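---------- Forwarded message ----------

FYI, see the Sulfide:quinone oxidoreductase, mitochondrial record below. Original note from H. follows.
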Amino acid sequence: MSITLKTLIKFQSRFCRESSKVVSNFSTSSRDDARRDYKLVIVGGGTGGTAIANKFAKKLGKGKVAVVEPSETHYYQPMFTLVGGGIKTLSQTASPSDSLFPKGADWIKDRAAAFDATNNVVTTENGDELHYDYLVIAMGIQMNFDQIKGLTDALDHDPMVCSNYNPAYVNKTFNAINKFKEGNAIFTFPNSPIKCAGAPQKIMYLADYHFRKMGKRDKANILYNTSLPVIFGVKKYADALLEVVKDKGITTNFRTCLTEIKHDSKEAVFQNLDTGDNQTVKYEMLHAVPPMSCPDVLKKHPDLVDETGWVNVNKNTLQHQTYSNIFALGDCTNMPTSKTAAAVSAQSGILQKNLNAVMDGKAATPLYDGYTSCPLITSKGKCIMAEFGFDGPLETFPINQARESRLMYHLKKDFMPALYWMGLVKGHWNGPKVYRKLFHLGMGK
């Protein structure tokens, strides 16, 4: 499928105008009877689940695919950084879920409460039993705001404590940037895997940009307190980002984890993960990223998750390590790559191929190379386009993508949202591998 920038931007504009008018084109289900039988059950209606539903609904036929998803609103979460940075609005990130699911699929507007993988059954909170031949788990990642003492209370009551990791709080971020006067502006990274590992520092760079624009930068002490030992997991991009923070005068504190917020006294408590020592720091503004985990309902089933608590799949095939009729993709899995929408795009195409093969009685093929991408916005109008896989950089364009680029910024800001709505969640976009080979004259990976 050929998708041009002009077509995508035109589609995005039309989509934003029309999405609220869409009438559901597939069936929704509440509890009519306790048992339902499906060829394919997809648990999770986020990026991965919606993409897989669109790939299989027409192939398998009406009433053969069910999507278990309680939320009526689907968010394009990679845009939350731009919302927090005052570049996009929250409404631009949202679409009704029923405008994205395919015709012929059943929407089970409920949560999964239990899995019986031995007997091929998913039970919902309402008590419905969904029997399946094949199961795709795409439940995303769980935000654990309550694991940082005082964080939820601070987010609810302190206008200068914010987080881009929840649509309920994302608008607070730009408000806090505008209200900032002087003192410490702290940006945190928790001691857990998270979705989009670059996002905690992207909003920091946008805050730096706005502080400079408003003439407040000399009054701001910007701190990046991260639990990680490095600024980014891929050395090529880490080296570039260390130069960015140096040029901007940002202080980086590695192996430093937020454990408590005392918003009444405007204090944050951090633990040094190497020594165990605690330090209390005053803040004027604090952007907090909560610890994250695989959803609790999955962790209750040790046959589905590994010893670290994530869905246990083969990293190259996306097939479950124990149950051959179960596949998983996205943030809930134990695949050793960053948890991003870009990763889901590549994974969705590979899952489609391998699930089709298994349905045809064939073996799954090891195809996934760990591809993911993190567009690292370093200022308004600048972006480092990090693309990498299990073994290091996997860059699409025949340039050094570790350099700040205005082109890459506009790809992130203008092109990728349209590609997401028109391509990825509709089941048409499987990542840039074909284009990567084309741009590298067939010599790329």
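H. also flagged this: The first helix runs from residue 5 to 18.
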